[in-house]
Amino acid sequence: MQDVKGSSKSFPKHETRHVSEHKNVARCARFSLDGRFVATGSSDMSIKLFEVSKIKQMMLADARDGPVRPVIRTFYDHSQPINDLDFHPQGTILISGAKDHTIKFFDFSKTAAKRAFRVIQDTHNVRSVSFHPSGDYLLAGTDHYIPHLYDVNTFQCYLSAHVQELNANAAINQVRYSSTGSMYVTASKDGSVRVWDGVTAQCVRPIIGAHGSMEATSASFTKDQRFVLSCGKDSTVKLWEVGTGRLIKQYLGAVHTQLRCQAIFNETEEFILSIDEPNNEVVIWDALTAEKVAKWPSNHIGAPRWVEHSPFDAAFITCGNDRSVRFWKEIP
């Protein structure tokens, strides 16, 4: 991760299209691991599931066979707004975490199913969910300051044992497993980012004040698990070395102080994407040089609340307060 000045890559041009609209604020989005599906969750308490190939077909100018409908399922089973979503790593299962204190399991292989087939009742507002790569465990980040670890088969909930030493008392905005499940990371409302051991559930690397006293709104690992990318309401995006907790890079020049802003890698991890709220733009940096290489109008009315990149494709999703879901893909 040495500093390489003056050699920033240019981010390829993308085209964007409004692909669907919720009845209320579109709050979150998530792609499946293989990039075939993407889901969005809303304040209207519904979840929309899209087939990515159908979105791409819809974006082709000559849809000769009439309109293409990319939404293949809509699920209604929550009684409060949806905060986060995740796909089972192997199966056709989608989970959602919501303000109604539940995590719900939906099987999207069944065409008629509108409701969840399993429900985990948590004690708190479920702000974030993440499947272990095995699919046997899932993490919930909630208004409670410790991540809740669930056994998917028994619904048993496990908490970290040594929480007194944590010196934590703030809600968790995001929780994400690493690619092998050997670690997970949390971003908290008190501005801290914490790395946890995936087996012992101990906090192994607390980065207190990662975003000063402002909320840390997102945190995720690089694919090689050596770094964590975090975003905060202090209008910074930061790259941390997991082994030492050292700050390696800062990505500046995008203002985000209001929403639960995400900072994400593109599929090759060469670029980082986030949102500039006052200018209503998608901002892109070269991950290595930390130089801003693009800023594009979001095409949303008001800044997007969420940006999520495909793990597989040169494509991403934005969604927001204007209820709109937009798909972006590289122009070939």
TrEMBL record:
Gene3D superfamilies: YVTN repeat-like/Quinoprotein amine dehydrogenase. SUPFAM superfamilies: WD40 repeat-like. The keyword Repeat applies. Its main location: nucleus. One of its GO terms (molecular function) is RNA binding. GO terms for cellular component: mRNA cleavage stimulating factor complex. WD repeats lie at residues 19-60, 75-116, 165-197, 217-250. It comes from the Eukaryota. It comes from Phoenix dactylifera (Date palm). Pfam families: WD40. Keywords: mRNA processing, Nucleus, Repeat, WD repeat. The keyword Nucleus applies. GO terms for biological process: mRNA 3'-end processing. This is Cleavage stimulation factor 50 kDa subunit.
